[in-house]
Design brief:
The chain has 184 residues and is α+β, with helices and mostly antiparallel strands. It has three helices and twelve strands. The longest helix is centred in the last third of the chain and has 22 residues. The protein is globular, with a radius of gyration of 16 Å.
């Protein structure tokens, strides 16, 4: 895993690299991370900022919590969601804001808790996660993330119990974050 470049995210394209790192760190308890190199989803991990050589974020999975790591996740099961998460400061607000895709290429922006309530009402198994390349910069001013999504239906080699476990793990994270951000 030390050679897993999917868990090493370059920051050289960011104007404010520390801000990008802090933003991602503020979201780490919300989103799981996917590595296509080892076909795993990590729900417990640390983020380290490294400026040795090139500035980058290193995702360090907590391997002692083996039951929070999901293996044998085909890259075909990870798809772009079109959902973007911004720091509220971009909109002159606190907390996090989400831009949901709409038909015709437009989008609708709303507070995170409201957006996830909307998404969970529309899609019972909206299971967003992060992967390398999802941390981006908005007009050179602020970091944001583009979410990918796990499509449970594409985990055809998994049992119903394994599918339910991954759905429960993602759902628990969302209920926690919706309750937390509602109070920010």
């Amino acid at each position: 895993m030390a050679d897993d470049t999917e868990l090493q995210w370059e920051l050289n394209h960011f104007v404010d690299r520390k801000r990008a790192f802090e933003y991602l760190r503020s979201l780490k308890d919300i989103f799981c991370v996917y590595s296509s190199t080892d076909c795993k989803i990590y729900s417990n991990y640390q983020l380290n900022y490294s400026c040795v050589g090139e500035d980058r974020i290193e995702v360090v999975p907590d391997l002692s919590v083996w039951n929070d790591t999901f293996s044998f996740i085909s890259p075909a099961a990870i798809v772009p969601s079109g959902v973007l998460v911004f720091p509220g400061q971009v909109f002159g607000q606190n907390g996090f804001y989400v831009r949901l895709p709409l038909k015709g290429g437009r989008g609708k922006t709303m507070p995170l808790a409201q957006a996830f309530d909307h998404l969970l009402g529309r899609e019972s198994h909206f299971l967003p996660l992060l992967r390398k390349g999802d941390l981006r910069e908005f007009k050179g001013k602020a970091p944001y993330i583009h979410l990918h999504c796990l499509e449970v239906s594409k985990l055809d080699q998994w049992s119903a119990l394994q599918r339910a476990d991954v759905v429960d793990t993602f759902s628990d994270r969302f209920h926690d974050i919706i309750n937390t951000t509602a109070n920010i």
